[in-house]
Target: Cobyrinic acid a,c-diamide synthase
Amino acid sequence: MPIESQTMSAAPSLPPAAPAAPAGPAAAVSAGSAGARIIAVTSGKGGVGKTFVSANLAAALARTGQRVLVLDADLGLANLDVMLNLHPKTTLHDVFTGKARLEDAVMTTPGGFDALLAGSGMAEYSRLTPEVRSQFLSVIEALTPRYDLLLLDTGAGISDLVLFSVSLACEVLIVATPEPTSLTDAYAAIKVLAMQQKRQHVRMVINQATRPGDGRAITGQLQQVLDRFISTESGHPMRLIHMGDIPSDPSVRDAVMRRHLLLLQTPGCPAALAIAQLANKIETTLLVPAA
Ligand SMILES: Nc1ncnc2c1ncn2[C@@H]1O[C@H](COP(=O)(O)OP(=O)(O)OP(=O)(O)O)[C@@H](O)[C@H]1O
Ligand SMILES: [Mg+2]
Model:
């Protein structure tokens, strides 16, 4: 049993050191005060709610006047379009291959934010090739001056493509559920972000929480393990910042099945209220409040 696992009861079999993905310095596109903040929404395990959180968080922030774009950074298996019930004629792939202009691929959504969608089932975009890397970077650079916030809805895990898209962001939101498998994978991802991208902190959102206080306790447990085993370049342990919990709520599945935004379909349900609270925290801590 890896030594880390002995200290965290919620995740009894934490993995050993995560395999190093092809490195490269964190490429965070530094946005000046006039440019968008870039936040990556990522996770260790798949299916934990990244796309649901990204889309609804974007809607909540757009409501307050922020200019928000969600980019489907899950380039090989994109599904933001499915969740938003959009049928893009032009996608990010067409921009990458020079078949379309960036302007033509940006779609407006019913949530009041813009979306840049990727196609699905395109194996050539599931790997980080030098072409994908440079095209991705130029798209982000072109978008930055036009928005207050770019949310990157990444794939799950620690593939080089996921790590590259996360490296473009100044802030990272890790979505995890309270399940041990999700937490062990979250830990692995956080470890890679500390060691490979030299991040000093990441932000945690615990989705599908079943009890109040779940997220804070889980974040505390993960922090204890990090404090013991991972130190950042500065010599300080990586800091986990708990941003909020989203309860498990049947209205979420219902909204996803109907391909509606939860915030529009059931704005008063517990999960929608939690998203609004999370948006408020992000706006007050990470964004310049909209005029
Ligand atoms: N708070 C919640 N309450 C209930 N169900 C939820 C909640 N959040 C997410 N779900 C369910 O989890 C499913 C997966 O969510 P989502 O597609 O956003 O995950 P993901 O992390 O983006 O997945 P992937 O790793 O495949 O990109 C949703 O379709 C929804 O049914
Ligand atoms: Mg997703």
Notes: The chain has eleven helices and eight strands. The first strand starts at residue 37 and ends at 43.
